[in-house]
Amino acid sequence: MELDPRFLRKSKEPSRNEFCIIIQVLRFMDSLPRGLLFDFAPSRREQLQRITGVSNRIAQRSMDYLQNDDGFNGDTPPNEPTEGTKRGRKKKPVDDEQVKRLKTTIDNLTVSGATCTSTVIQNRLRETHGITITKPTLIRQLKKTGLKFTKGNRVNKEHESAANVAYRKKYVQERLSNLDENGVPIRPEVFLDESYIHVNHNLSRGWVDPDKNVYQQEKGAMLVIFGAFVVYRNEQGTTQAGFVEDHIINWPAEGGNRLQEGVRRGRPFKDQDQWLTAVPPEVLETKTVPRTHDYHGYFNGGTFEKLFTRMCNKLNELGHRNCIIHMDGASYHVRNTERAPSKSANKPTMVAWLKQQLQMEREMEDNNCDDREEEADPDFENMSKAQLFELIEQRTEGKEVQFNTYQIASDRGHTILKTPPYHCELQPIEKVWAVSKNQVAAQDMGSETILTVHRKLNKVFSEITSDTFVSLWQETVNTNREYALQ
Question: What is the pTM of this model?
Answer without folding.
Answer: 0.66
